């Protein structure tokens, strides 16, 4: 099973694909020319093992100034000490969920995703075949949980919802799972992965 999943993910990542953005469902949005996006990397950790594969996600602390309580991948902006966005994603995963260095097998990258907050985010897809002790980063991560990969790869589980944001109605993807409301950039990047796996 793990080898089949890894092979399928590698094949999906090798396919051509366009970049995505938080504005995909809002084509009337006019983005400023010459805008400079900050590079960031997020890890999409696919936990393999004896059972069905799961994707590890985090729930951000409700006390945070930015995106409190939202569901996200481990990851963040590329710092000066990071060699690239992959290194940034792995460093942040180590800090946020306690993922030991060297445990994640990087399978490849999805095309970048532009966020409303001015980041160019590269999703780094990785397989984790060994169990590890998950440790949530105090103060930043409220909870670490996992969602079956099969749930996230089923396009039928994705919905398009909307809310008013800065005076206009903004549409976005959601992929709810149990008590977890996964939406926005995280849902959009997962939807892009589902599209590739479906091809």
Give the count of helical stretches: 4
The H-and-E topology, N to C, reads as: HEEEEEHEEEEHEEH
Mean pLDDT: 91
Main sheet: strands, sense, barrel:
9 strands, mixed
Range of helix content: 10-25%
As a whole number of angstroms, the C-alpha radius of gyration is 16 Å
Number of strands: 11
Please tell me what the overall shape is. Answer: globular
Please identify the structural class as seen in this structure: alpha+beta
Low-pLDDT runs of 5+ residues are none
Distance between the termini: 20 Å
Descriptive notes:
With 199 residues, the chain is α+β, with helices and mostly antiparallel strands. 23% of the residues lie in helices and 32% in strands. The chain is built from 4 helices and 11 strands. It has helices spanning 2-14, 85-97, 149-152, 184-198; strands at residues 20-21, 38-47, 54-60, 71-72, 75-77, 105-109, 113-114, 119-128, 141-148, 159-165, 168-174. The strands form 2 sheets. Strands 1, 2, 3, 4, 5, 6, 7, 8 and 9 form a 9-stranded mixed sheet that branches. β10 (159-165) and β11 form a beta hairpin. The chain is globular, with a radius of gyration of 16 Å. The mean pLDDT is 91.
């Amino acid at each position: 099973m793990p080898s089949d999943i890894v092979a399928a993910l590698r094949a999906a990542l090798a396919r051509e694909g366009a970049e995505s953005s938080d504005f995909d469902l809002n084509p009337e949005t006019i983005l400023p020319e010459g805008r400079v996006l900050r590079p960031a990397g997020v890890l999409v950790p696919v936990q393999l093992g004896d059972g069905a594969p799961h994707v590890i996600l985090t729930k951000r602390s409700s006390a945070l100034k930015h995106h409190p309580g939202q569901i996200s991948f481990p990851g963040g902006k590329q710092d000066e000490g990071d060699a690239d966005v992959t290194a940034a994603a792995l460093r942040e995963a180590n800090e946020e969920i306690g993922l030991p260095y060297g445990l994640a097998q990087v399978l490849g990258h999805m095309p970048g995703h532009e966020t409303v907050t001015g980041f160019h985010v590269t999703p780094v897809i990785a397989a984790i075949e060994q169990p590890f002790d998950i440790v949530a980063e105090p103060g930043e991560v409220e909870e670490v949980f996992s969602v079956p990969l099969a749930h996230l790869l089923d396009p039928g589980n994705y919905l398009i919802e909307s809310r008013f944001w800065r005076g206009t109605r903004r549409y976005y993807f959601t992929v709810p799972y149990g008590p977890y409301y996964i939406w926005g950039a995280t849902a959009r990047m997962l939807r892009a992965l589902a599209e590739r796996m479906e091809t």
